[in-house]
Amino acid sequence: MASENSSNPYDINGSNFNSELYIQRLLKECSLKQIMDHEADTVLDTQTLHSDMQTLVYENYNKFIAATDTVRKMKYDFNQMEESMEKLEKNMENITNLSEKITETLLPDRQKVIKLSSTHSLLKKLQFIFKLPENLKERINEENYSKAVQDYLNAQQVLNQYGDMPSFQGIHKDCEEIIEELKTKLRTEFHKSEASTKSLTESVDLLLQLKEPADLLCEDFLSHADVRLANQLDYLKDMHEKDVIEFVDFGSNGFLSDLCLVVASYKDMFVNRTPQDVHEFSDDFDTKAISRLNTFVMNNMKKYFELVGKRVDNVADTAVLVRALDRFYKRLQAMNVLCENTDFARTGTEIVIAAGRRQCRNHLSNLKQHLHETLAKVRQTLASKVSSDTDGGLPELQAMLTVPIIEKVKGVLQDLLVFLQPELSFGLKPQFLQRFCVDEVREGLVVGFLHHMTATANGFCTNLDTPKFPATLLLLLSKMCLEFKDTSVQYLLTSTDDLFNIEEYAVTKSDLTLHSEINENFQKAAQELLNHFVRLQGLNVSQMLRKSVETRDWLHTIEPRTVRAVMKRVVEDITAIEAQVTVLYDDNDGQIDRSSDSSRKTHSVSRHQYRSNWSSYTPSHLDSSFVSNIHKLFSERIEIFSSVQFNKASILTGIIKISLKTFLECVRLRTFSKYGLQQIQVDTHYLQLYLWPFVSDENLVHFLLDEILGSAVHRCLEPVLMEPSVVDIICERN
Amino acid sequence: MVLRQARAWAAQTAETDSVCFFVGTLSNSVTTKYCIFTIKRTLYPIKLKIVSDTKIIIFQHPIEEIWSMQASPTQVVKFITCYNFLTDNTCQMKAALWNIPKNNDTNDIIPLEKLADIDTTPYENELKTITYHPTDSTKAVSVLDNNFVLWDLNFKPQVVTVGTLTSRGQPKFINGKWNSHHLMDQFGTLIKNSIKDLDFNTLRQYYFATCGDDGFMKFWDIRNTNEPVWSIRINKFHDQLVLTSSSDSRVILSNVALIYSEPFNQIHKDNVYAAEWSAADPWTFASLSYDGRLVINRVPQKYKYQILL
User: Fold this and answer.
1) What was the pLDDT predicted at A617?
2) Which SUPFAM superfamilies does the protein's record reference (chain B) (predicted)?
């Protein structure tokens, strides 16, 4: 619009206004009335503008007049000022002149004053030096050693500078003497046993300032500290009877704190000195001082560890022990911050582990003790029991051998769990966890105890000669081993593994003794015990048979009327053994119940077959010998001392085999008359009648008895056998 | 070779050129024979009957049961037997010194020549054994009951000394053996009935072995001083070789040093009461079972080489 306006020739206010064009347009576009109005407006506008212009001109004229007046006034003022300036200049000149005059007059006096003041200060210094010996003495008497040393050090430079002047020599000497005295005093202070570490530190600091050899001081300082620490240790040693927690606390607060203080002050004094002090020491002093400190600390810690190790070795209550160890270990960790070169925590861990091991060992020996007590109790019960009620009590004794033992082991495991509390300071060390859980608890304690059990069990199998225990014990132990093999071992190991997170801590699986290995041991022990039981009982019965054959005069015996009492005794004994065995081992091999009539019939049939060997006997040796040999060819070899199985029939078969074999061997060593032979015939028939129900394979008994009778026939001078029916009658009668 | 029942068994100790054993039979029948076997050592003895060079000479022992015998250590032709003498329904153990007649080339049964009776009857009836001194054929010890008697056999057997054991329980000796060390004058005896035999180690003076009813061989150190094996013999030249025979019809050769043993159990069918090393060949041994079967064996080559090499 503006640009349009400016270029618009019809805009009355614009610069390009063209009155002619404007008028023309007005005339062309507007009516007369409009033009008339417009003319009136324009006239009015023109008049207004005109008056405005007049006012402006008037105002400007007034201002111009005022300005002219001001200029005129200024011109007058400047003239006046010039006059006063000239006056001032003159005055200043006068003042300068006066001042110069004064300075000139005062100069000589001032030089004199300066000289006087310097002399004064020198005199003051000299006075200090002259008074120094007395001052020092006074200070020492006041025991204000540090001030004395301060004074001496201040004067020392001067003394050194003027030391050669005769007047100063005396003073120097006096000072020196006094300082020597001071040093010795400080030294004695140093060696006083009751001196505290703090006062020691002060003394050492002063001595160092007095330029005493730092090396020597280190040594003195440490040896003195040593003495005091040794006192602490002695005190600790005396505390052995006291509560272990109290012991550890005392050790921590007394000994360890002192040691820390010693180390800290030592470091302050000798190691961490400010740089300007460094020049006082030789270059390698630092390393020497540190190594000296280290040996000192190591020695003392070693002694301390020994004491602690010894003390924690013998603590009955695991919970108390663990608390003590925890405190001990925490304090050690704090120590570690102090001495960065050595890792006391590691040694601490060792001690904790050793204590843990010790605890496991104690528990192990307790368990062993318990096992032996239980065994003794069982033996006693067995020995005191009347032999008649054999089966009564065996199951109870059996339970006594397993349940309390397992409970005991569980109790021990619970007790040791205290070591694994998560809040314990040493509880997080993998080193500790691994060694304690795996090596000590599982392998050392649990597996160790199981091994001990098998070893104890095996210990009963070593000697056949004079068993000092009832044979039933072997049977019980064998059963116990079997039970352990079947359930208890698995149970104990699994619960140990669970409680102590063995899976997690074991480094390699091969570190762990396997269930199977222990089970195998128990199986072996059970077998061994059972075999031993069979042998022992076999030999007992054998002994009776042997005596009965050896002591009789078989050449002069009467015609048999009865079965010999020994045979009845043998059957009785074997019946008694069977009763015992039945309680613990069932006949699980599914053998038939032979007490029924039908089986008895089959038995007697076989009995007849057996007898036929000898019923056709003729005096011709050759024949019988052939019969016997052919019989042997077709029968299997009998293993007399073979391993027995865990069932009743097998156990009894083993005992009977041994007994009959002995019988056979004894018969072969004797010579028989006709009646002697017949007595053997009656005896073997009797055994035949009563022994077969006990064994799994009755042919075995037949075969052995057949051999006995056969051998007796060979050893007989007049081999004539009895009528089988008569033998039957004699046997039935008994 | 099947004989009668036999228990007595001895190596012909004085014979060093060939492997010889004596077997004494045990039978109360009418004809009792008494045999010597001579086997050439060059042979591999497997079974007697198939080895052609094996010579069996049968001698007649006039008195019936032979329970124990031993050959003289120096004289090939002499030996002692302990025998059961049966008269009028009593039996008595007796001992005698015998001589083998010179002409033994024939296959006939040769009667033996009795040199002397050794009368042990004054010292209880139960004569267990008479053994020669290992090197001196003029000395022998008999073991009876709780006595042992030292004899001088120079001319007529004479008693030199009698040792008697008296102790609680009236123990009886059951066997005895000379210990060849200690200037050759020690005699070991066995008391316990469950122990059957003993043998001394000829190379190490303090060691001896026993065997017994419990089926174990036991090796003892005499300075410190228990089990059914009937007989045990330590090889005189290689002391790690031990031979045992047992009533389960087995003969077992054990190498004690290496703890291994080789059972030779296929052959015997009855209890083996005696086993003996050959005097002439250290690698040959023989065993005798109650049924009269005699088996001569050699140490298997592989063990032999193990020991020698």
Assistant:
1) 43
2) WD40 repeat-like
Report the distance separating Cα A628 and Cα A707, nearest Å: 8
Q: Which of chain B's residues have a Cβ under 8 Å away from the Cβ of A535?
A: 214
The encoded tokens of residue A666 equal 């004894």
Q: Which of A141-145, A445-449, A543-547 has the lowest mean pLDDT?
A: A141-145
Q: Could you give the 3-state DSSP secondary structure of residue B84?
A: strand
Q: What share of chain A is helix, strand, coil (3-state, %, to 5)?
A: 80, 0, 20
Q: Which band of pLDDT confidence, cut at 50, 70 and 90, is reported for residue B202?
A: low
d(C-alpha B138, C-alpha B142), whole Å: 13
Count of helices and strands (H, E) across chain A: 27, 0
Selected residue with higher pLDDT from B238 and A66: A66
- How is residue A36 written in tokens? 């008339």
Q: Best residue in A461, A542, A631, A641 to probe B by mutation, most B CBs within 10 Å?
A: A641
Summarised one tens digit per residue, pLDDT across range A389-433 is 555 577 777 788 888 888 888 888 888 888 877 777 776 677 777
pLDDT of A325 strictly over 60: yes
Facing A671 at nearest CB: one of B29, B84, B269: B84
Which chain A residue's Cα is nearest to B267?
A: A633
Dump the DSSP string for A675-704.
HHHHHHHHHHHHHHHHHGGGSS-HHHHHHH
CA of A633, closest CA in chain B: separation in Å? 8
- Cα angle at B275 between B271 and B278, to 5 degrees? 155
Query: Which residues make Cβ contacts (< 8 Å) with residue A27, sequence separation at least 6?
Result: A35
Q: Which residues pair with B176 in a beta bridge?
A: B189
* Contacts (Cβ under 8 Å, ≥6 apart) of B73: B13, B14, B132, B133, B134, B135, B136, B137
Rounded to two decimals, the pTM is 0.65
Specify the DSSP class assigned to residue A443: I
Asked if pLDDT for residue A543 goes beyond 80, the answer is yes
Residue with tokens 């620490």: A229
What is each CA distance from A695 to A458, A534, A605, A648, in whole angstroms?
A: 27, 13, 17, 9
Give B185-189's long-range contacts (Cβ < 8 A, gap of 24+): B187/B141, B187/B148, B187/B150, B189/B143, B189/B148, B189/B165
CB contact under 8 A, A715 and B227: no
Residues of chain A with Cβ-Cβ distance to B293 below 8 Å are none
β-strands B110-111, B55-60 pairing? parallel
Average pLDDT over residues A308-315: 76
Question: Chain B closest CA to A385's CA: distance in Å?
Answer: 28
For A465, the closest of B89, B226, B271 (CB atoms) is B226
Closest to B226 (Cβ–Cβ): which among A464, A555, A638? Answer: A464
Residues whose CB falls within 8 Å of the CB of residue B182, separated by 6 or more in sequence, listed in order: B205
Domain boundaries along the sequence of chain A = 32-162, 349-513, 539-585+623-733
CB B177 within 8 A of CB B199: yes
Q: Quick check: A260 and A337 in contact, CB under 8 A?
A: no
User: Residue B91: which of A555, A638, A641 has the nearest Cβ?
Assistant: A555
Q: Do B228 and A621 touch (CB under 8 A)?
A: no
CB distance from A665 to chain B under 8 Å?
Answer: yes
* Residues in contact with A231: Cβ distance below 8 Å, sequence separation at least 6, in sequence order: A193
A673 contact B CB<8A: yes
The question of ipTM being above 0.90 is answered as: no
Residue B195 Ramachandran class (φ > 0 left, ψ -120 to 50 alpha, else beta): beta
Which of A461, A541, A621, A643 best probes binding to B when mutated, by most B CB atoms within 10 angstroms? A621
Q: What order of strands is seen across the sheet that includes strand B158-164? A: B127-132, B139-144, B147-152, B158-164
